[in-house]
Design goal:
- By secondary structure, the protein is α+β, with helices and mostly antiparallel strands.
- It has helices spanning 6-9, 12-26, 92-96, 102-126, 142-149, 168-175, 240-244; strands at residues 33-36, 46-52, 74-80, 82-91, 131-135, 161-166, 181-182, 197-199, 202-206, 212-217, 224-227, 237-239, 256-273, 284-299, 304-317, 323-329.
- Strands 5, 6, 7, 8, 9, 10, 11, 12, 13 and 16 form a ten-stranded mixed beta sheet that branches. A four-stranded mixed beta sheet has the order 1-14-15-4.
- A hairpin with a 2-residue loop joins β8 and β9 (202-206).
- The longest helix has 25 residues, at 102-126.
Length: 330
C-alpha cells in the first residue's frame, strides 16, 4: 500500500518553475523590461551599464575637405544584485487535512510576494528618470499629460505608444476630463493589461505602486534623519522603509529629509516602442542572477514545514530617453 508523504505534496523542484512562470505575469512593468541573464552565466553580483551620449547630427562637408571627427563618449552606472525572499510555514494537519490547497496557496503567495518586490524596485528605478515634468501646481489632466509627453521631443509620423501609471485616487479626476477616452466607450488597442483608457496619447494604468511623495532630501536643513532599523523611530528619526513609501530617489541611513510644502504623485510615462526610432533599447532592464528558488525545511518537533522562496535580481533604468516622470499635485 502506497503511503503519501509530505515530499509528494511539497516538491521544491516542481514549485520553483511554476512560481517563476507566475512572476512574469504578476509584474506590472514586464512589458517595458528586458530580462538580462548575463549575471547568471558567471561569478559576480555587480553589473556595469553603459550609457552612450549622442554624437550629434551629421554636418555639411565641402568637396575635398576632410571630415572632422567626434569623440564617442559614454558614462556608466553600476548596479548590485539584491535578494528578495519570503517564507511560509504550514502544519502537517493543514497539508494533509484536504481543507483547501495550502501547498498551492503557499506557492501563489510566494510568487505574489516576490513579484511585488521586483515590481516595487522597477518602479523605483523608473522614478529615477532624468526627464521630469513639474506639474505640482495643478492636478493631473490633459494639459499636464501632454506637456509631460512633449518632453520626449519625438520626431516622425508614427509616435511611440506610451503608458502613464497613475494612482487610483487620480482616476476619478481623469475620468471626468473631457479628453479622456474610456476603454469601455472607445475601441483601443491596449499595450498591456490594466489599461482603463487613454488621454493625451498615453494609455492609463492605475497602480497603487505610484507614490504620493511627501518628502525631499536635504542633508543640510532636513528635519528627519534616516536611522537603522535597529533604532527606535521617533518624530525626527525614521527608518528607510518608512520614508521610502513617500519618496522617490536614492536614500541611505544617515541622510536627512524634510516634508514638502505641496505633496505630489510621481507618475511615470513610459515609451513602449517607436517604429521610427532605431534605438530599441528597453526602458527598463531586470538583471537576473538567479530566478526563483524554492527550498523546504522540517521542524520535527512542531511537525511543520517551512517553504521559502527567493530571487536574486536588480532592476535598472536602461534607457533614460524612454521615461518621463510626471509630478502632479495631490
Amino acid at each position: 500500500m502506497a503511503t503519501t508523504m509530505l515530499t509528494n505534496l511539497i516538491n521544491p523542484q516542481v514549485m520553483a518553475p511554476v512560481i517563476s512562470a507566475k512572476l512574469a505575469k504578476k509584474i506590472r512593468f514586464t512589458p517595458f523590461a528586458k530580462i538580462d541573464l548575463t549575471l547568471a552565466a558567471g561569478p559576480g553580483n555587480t553589473i556595469t551599464v553603459p550609457k552612450y551620449a549622442y554624437i550629434g547630427d551629421a554636418e555639411d562637408v565641402a568637396e575635398g575637405v576632410a571630415m572632422g571627427t567626434t569623440v564617442l563618449t559614454a558614462s556608466t552606472t553600476t548596479a548590485t544584485v539584491k535578494k528578495a525572499g519570503k517564507a511560509v510555514e504550514i502544519t502537517d494537519e493543514a497539508v494533509l487535512s484536504g481543507y483547501g490547497d495550502p501547498v498551492g496557496e503557499s506557492g501563489n503567495q510566494l510568487a505574489k510576494s516576490i513579484a511585488a518586490k521586483v515590481d516595487n524596485d522597477c518602479y523605483d528605478a523608473i522614478s529615477n528618470a532624468t526627464l521630469t515634468y513639474d506639474g505640482t501646481s495643478a492636478v493631473i489632466g490633459y494639459d499636464a499629460i501632454v506637456n509631460t509627453i512633449d518632453m520626449f521631443e519625438e520626431e516622425g509620423d508614427t509616435p511611440a505608444a506610451k503608458v502613464i501609471f497613475v494612482h487610483p485616487k487620480q482616476v476619478t479626476t481623469l475620468r471626468k476630463d473631457s479628453d479622456f477616452k474610456d476603454i469601455n466607450k472607445y475601441p483601443l488597442k491596449v499595450v498591456m493589461n490594466g489599461v482603463i483608457g487613454e488621454i493625451g496619447g498615453a494609455q492609463v494604468v492605475p497602480s497603487r505602486k505610484v507614490k504620493l511623495v511627501k518628502y525631499e532630501k536635504d542633508n543640510t536643513d532636513g528635519t528627519i534623519t534616516i536611522v537603522a532599523d535597529t533604532t527606535t523611530e521617533t518624530t525626527t528619526d525614521k527608518h528607510l522603509s518608512t520614508i521610502m513609501a513617500n519618496y522617490v530617489g536614492a536614500l541611505a541611513v544617515g541622510d536627512k529629509v524634510k516634508g514638502l510644502s505641496a505633496n505630489y504623485y510621481a507618475c511615470p510615462i513610459i515609451m513602449t516602442s517607436n517604429t521610427d526610432d532605431v534605438d530599441d533599447t528597453a526602458a527598463l532592464t531586470i538583471y537576473m542572477k538567479r530566478q526563483a528558488s524554492i527550498e523546504t525545511d522540517r521542524d520535527i518537533l512542531k511537525k511543520t514545514t517551512v517553504i521559502s522562496g527567493d530571487e536574486h535580481f536588480v532592476a535598472v533604468l536602461s534607457n533614460e530617453s524612454k521615461v518621463v516622470l510626471g509630478k502632479y499635485k495631490a
